[in-house]
Design a protein that fits this description.
Structural class: alpha/beta
Distance between the termini: 22 Å
CATH class: Alpha Beta
Mean pLDDT: 96
CATH topology: Rossmann fold
Strand order of the largest sheet: 5-6-4-3-7-8-9
Order of helices and strands: HEEHHEHEEEEHEHE
Strand content: 35-45%
Number of helices: 6
Radius of gyration: 15 Å
Length: 174
């Protein structure tokens, strides 16, 4: 099996994307390599430990790529948290702050049953705003959030502090 250091070696740094001063961590080389992609899913799934997960929740949009695969590995259901207006059924929504304004994420009102064990998965933890809003949505549905897992964490942005959860896992930290 490939390791986290193999994943790290494959990530491409793209300076000044999407705007000047940002060093973007490009995961597409991992996605394009079947062994590395499988390793990323296996490492994320392993963060659940021995806990039986009922649903893996993925955050729009790159989180879907990883969360669906992790759900398959764990034998769990997959639930998307989407940007406002993208889900076709009754939703709960949560607003969160952006650098210049506000955004809203939504989840289907019936996606999670009270007490279900949830693993929240996303590709990247930066400032934590989207993940924190997703956690609030899950708590509003009485979910039992047993872990939050990211492929990459940008530690200098202190997103972990915004989550207020003890079981936060990152495969790679920069």
């Amino acid at each position: 099996m490939r390791s986290a250091s193999d994943l790290d070696s494959a990530i491409r740094d793209v300076p000044d994307f999407p705007k000047p001063g940002i060093l973007f961590k490009d995961i597409t080389p991992i996605l394009g390599d079947p062994d590395l992609f499988k390793a990323s899913l296996d490492l994320l799934a392993a963060t659940a430990g021995d806990t039986k997960i009922d649903k893996v929740v993925g955050i729009d949009a790159r989180g879907f790529i990883f969360a669906a695969g992790v759900a398959h590995i764990l034998g769990a259901g997959f639930v998307p948290v989407r940007k406002k207006g993208k889900l076709p059924w009754t939703t709960h929504q949560m607003a969160y702050s952006l650098e210049y304004g506000e955004d809203v994420v939504e989840i289907h009102a019936d996606a999670i049953k009270p007490g279900e064990k949830i693993l929240l998965v996303d590709d990247l933890l930066a400032t934590g705003g989207t993940a924190a809003a997703s956690i609030k949505l899950l708590k509003a549905l009485d979910a039992d959030i047993v872990g939050i897992s990211f492929l990459i964490e940008l530690a200098d942005l202190k997103g972990r502090e915004a989550l207020g959860q003890p079981d936060v896992h990152s495969i790679l930290t920069y």
